[in-house]
Amino acid sequence: MHAFRIRVPASAIDAVGHVNNREYIAWMQDAATSHSAAAGWPEQRYFETGATWIVRSHFVEYLRPAFDGDELTVHTWVHAMGAIGSPRRYLFLRDADGERVARAETVWVFIDVATGRPRRIPAEIRDAFPIVDDAAVAAALGAGYEE
After folding, report:
1. Has residue 16 been placed in a domain?
2. pLDDT, tens digit, 9 for 90 and up, residues 36-49
3. How does pLDDT run across 93-140, given as a tens digit for each residue?
4. pLDDT > 90: what percent of the chain?
5. 6 found inside a domain
6. CB 119, CB 104: distance < 8 Å
């Protein structure tokens, strides 16, 4: 599991006065990229192997609004790993009160950069990202993905 910190900037606020939903998608990508780099797989390393990850789908459930100046921690983890794809989960917690702000999942597909076609995920990448189940998340954070 990986923690990625955000201080909500004024530019992320929409006309309703809370964080615009598109910001969460950007933060999910930033958290995933940060986790990958921390695990020894920065973006450049993928390209050196001729492969990278692309998004197949996003799911986001907005649980509570976040506001300008809020400090959030995005907890992210690899939930499973198939032959060519992997769902990654995210739990957005507000630092001040521990409230769950959003939960999300992205399905990532590993592709060959030259062809754009799916490619099997090599063992060295699998080994870098241990699978974390939701019970372990709840135990570690005191807040679960499924609550």
Report:
1. yes
2. 999 999 999 999 99
3. 999 999 999 999 999 999 999 999 999 999 999 999 999 988 888 778
4. 90
5. yes
6. no
Q: How many residues does the chain have?
A: 147
Residue 116 lies in a domain: yes
CA 54 to chain centre: 13
The CATH number assigned to the domain holding 108 equals 3.10.129.10
The token duo for 99 is 């409230």
User: Which residues form the domain of 62?
Assistant: 2-141
| Domain membership flag for residue 11 | yes
Please state, rounded to an integer, the average pLDDT across all residues of the chain.
Answer: 94
Cα angle 24, 99, 60; round to 5: 30
CA-based nearest residue to 129, from 4, 52, 28, 40: 40
